[in-house]
Write a structure and sequence with these properties.
single chain, 202 residues, alpha+beta, 36% helix
Length: 202
């Protein structure tokens, strides 16, 4: 399985990065406070208290802004023209697979030119986009054929991290992932060091 967008996210990793940035910023503010306090006359204790409260409020504001809701993150655009990209591989998820209700049927995997560098080197650079085109199946006694498109899953790498989205059916705007679903992503994709499960079929 390439990736299950309906069970995955990077929220844990992003939260750690944001916390680290807040810690650095607040530490810098409090160092400035300590330096100013040392230079402030003793009879200006009220000024010191006022400055301390201001620094504390600033840190709270930074914290709230840093841990904004996932809806505030820019939306991943629909991957126009992905069918013209390199076809990485195709696999079929059958009824016995636990993920059948989510990604059952044909899964055609496509990658843009940037992502193909990652399949070659093992290191996916920023700008990599991978799409899994999930197509329902119709089966008779001798063949398994494609039916309608269930959805497409999209992985986009930027700033050193992967982001995820799913588009329902043939729609370019009907997004399937909710914040709760997105929040489950990293635990799934961290099984692979590059967070990409597929390998290029030459």
């Amino acid at each position: 399985m390439v990736f299950n967008m309906l069970a995955c996210s990077q929220v844990d990793v992003l939260d750690r990065i944001r916390a680290w940035r807040v810690e650095i910023c607040c530490a810098s503010l409090f160092r400035d406070f300590a330096r100013q306090a040392d230079e402030t006359p003793v009879n200006s204790i009220m000024n010191k208290r006022y400055y301390f409260v201001s620094v504390a409020l600033a840190c709270v504001a930074i914290l709230l802004a840093s841990f904004r809701s996932p809806s505030a993150v820019p939306a991943i655009p629909y991957p126009e023209g992905y069918r013209e990209w390199t076809h990485v591989k195709t696999y079929i998820v059958g009824p016995k697979n636990p993920a059948f209700k989510l990604i059952g049927g044909f899964n055609h995997v496509y990658a843009n030119d940037v992502a193909m560098k990652g399949y070659t080197t093992g290191d996916f650079p920023d700008g990599s986009v991978i799409v899994s085109d999930v197509i329902s199946t119709v089966e008779d006694s001798i063949t398994i054929r494609e039916d309608s498109r269930h959805h497409i899953d999209v992985m986009v790498k930027g700033n050193g991290a992967w982001d995820f989205e799913s588009f329902r059916g043939d729609s370019k705007s009907d997004r399937m992932l909710t914040p709760d679903v997105v929040a489950k992503c990293v635990n799934c994709h961290r099984k692979d060091k590059n967070m990409v499960f597929s390998e290029y079929r030459r």
